[in-house]
C-alpha cells in the first residue's frame, strides 16, 4: 500500500539479507514503487549500493557525471555506489510513476554490465515491459509476505531475482556476434570443454554454448587457441586419461567409460593414436620410472 511522503506517494519494501544471501554474488536490499508529486526532485545524493529505477509512466530527467538525460516511459537508469545523482520530473503536467530495486554484492557491477549499463552511462532505453512488470510485482509480493521462514524467503527471492536478471540481460543490445566475439568467449568455451569433455560433448554443443555458428566458432577457436576445438576436446580427454592411469588404480575399462568412450576398443584406439602406446603400456612404462 502506498503512503504519502513529501515528494511522492510510495510503497517502500525492505529486506534484511541472510547469511545465505551474502554468500552469493548479489542480494536485494529494498524495492518499491511510487507516483511523483508536482515538484518531485531527488538529490544531489549518493548511495552505497546499486539501485535500478524503472520509468513506468511519464518522463524523468537524470543528471550524473556532467550529463543530463531525459528518460521516457519504458526507460531505466541505474545508480552506482558513491556517485552523485540528481533526478526529477521533467514537467508537472504528466504523471510520473517509478519502480525500483536496490541491490548490493560483488557481482552486481558485472551483472549490470551484461545488461548494458556502465557507471558512466547509467541510462538505457526501452527496458520496461509487461513481462518485466510481472516479475517485479512478484518480487514485491514476496517482500510483502509476513511470517515466512527467512531461509524460505531467501531461496524464493533468489529464484525470482535470478529469473529477473536472466530476462533483464536478454533485453540488452546484443553484440554483433557474426562479426566479432566478446573478449573471453574462447576462454569460456575452453573452460566449458574442460568441464564437460568426459560427458561426450561435441563441437556443435560447444558452439551452441558460445552462441555461434559451428563453422565460424571452429575458425575463431582455432585462430585463438592454436588448435581446433575437436583436437582440444581430445587433448582434454587424453590428459585426463593420463592422470587417471598414473594416479588411480582404476582399470583401463573403467577409465574408458569414465571418459565417455562407448567401448574399451574406442578408448584404446584413441589413446594409442595420441600417445603411440596402449593405455596399459603407458601406465606400465611410467609407473616403472
Automatic annotation (TrEMBL):
The record ties this protein, via SMART domains, to: HTH_ARAC
Provide the alphabetized UniProt keywords: DNA-binding, Transcription, Transcription regulation
**Keyword flag ATP-binding:** no
Q: Which InterPro entries match?
A: AraC-bd, Homeodomain-like_sf, HTH-like, HTH_AraC, HTH_AraC-typ_CS, RmlC-like_jellyroll, Tscrpt_reg_AraC-type_HTH
Q: Does the keyword Cell membrane apply?
A: no
Gene Ontology molecular function, alphabetical: DNA-binding transcription factor activity; sequence-specific DNA binding
- Domain HTH araC/xylS-type, first and last residues per copy: 187-285
Q: Which domain of life is it from?
A: Bacteria
Q: What is this protein called?
A: AraC family transcriptional regulator
Organism of this sequence: Paenibacillus herberti
Amino acid at each position: 500500500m502506498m503512503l504519502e511522503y513529501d515528494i511522492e506517494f510510495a510503497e517502500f519494501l525492505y529486506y534484511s539479507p541472510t547469511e545465505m544471501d551474502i554468500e552469493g554474488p548479489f542480494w536485494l536490499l529494498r524495492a518499491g514503487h511510487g507516483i511523483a508529486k508536482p515538484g518531485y526532485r531527488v538529490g544531489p545524493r549518493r548511495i552505497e549500493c546499486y539501485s535500478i529505477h524503472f520509468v513506468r509512466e511519464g518522463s524523468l530527467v537524470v543528471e550524473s557525471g556532467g550529463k543530463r538525460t531525459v528518460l521516457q516511459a519504458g526507460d531505466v537508469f541505474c545508480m552506482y555506489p558513491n556517485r552523485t545523482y540528481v533526478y526529477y520530473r521533467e514537467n508537472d503536467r504528466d504523471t510520473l510513476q517509478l519502480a525500483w530495486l536496490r541491490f548490493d554484492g560483488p557481482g552486481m557491477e558485472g551483472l549490470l554490465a551484461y545488461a548494458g549499463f556502465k557507471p558512466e552511462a547509467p541510462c538505457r532505453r526501452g527496458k520496461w515491459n509487461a513481462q518485466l512488470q510481472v516479475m517485479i510485482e512478484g518480487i514485491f509480493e514476496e517482500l510483502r509476505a509476513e511470517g515466512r521462514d527467512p531461509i524460505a524467503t531467501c531461496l524464493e527471492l533468489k529464484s525470482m531475482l535470478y529469473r529477473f536478471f536472466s530476462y533483464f540481460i536478454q533485453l540488452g543490445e546484443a553484440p554483433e556476434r557474426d562479426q566479432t566475439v566478446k573478449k573471453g568467449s574462447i576462454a569460456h568455451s575452453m573452460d566449458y570443454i574442460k568441464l564437460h569433455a568426459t560427458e561426450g560433448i561435441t563441437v556443435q554443443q560447444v558452439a551452441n554454448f558460445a552462441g555461434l555458428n559451428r563453422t565460424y566458432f571452429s575458425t575463431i577457436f582455432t585462430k585463438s587457441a592454436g588448435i581446433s576445438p575437436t583436437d582440444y576436446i581430445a587433448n582434454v580427454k587424453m590428459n585426463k586419461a593420463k592422470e587417471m592411469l598414473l594416479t588411480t588404480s582404476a582399470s583401463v575399462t573403467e577409465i574408458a567409460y569414465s571418459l565417455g568412450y562407448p567401448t574399451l576398443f574406442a578408448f584404446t584406439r584413441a589413446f594409442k593414436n595420441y600417445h603411440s602406446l596402449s593405455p596399459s603400456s603407458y601406465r606400465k612404462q611410467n609407473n616403472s620410472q
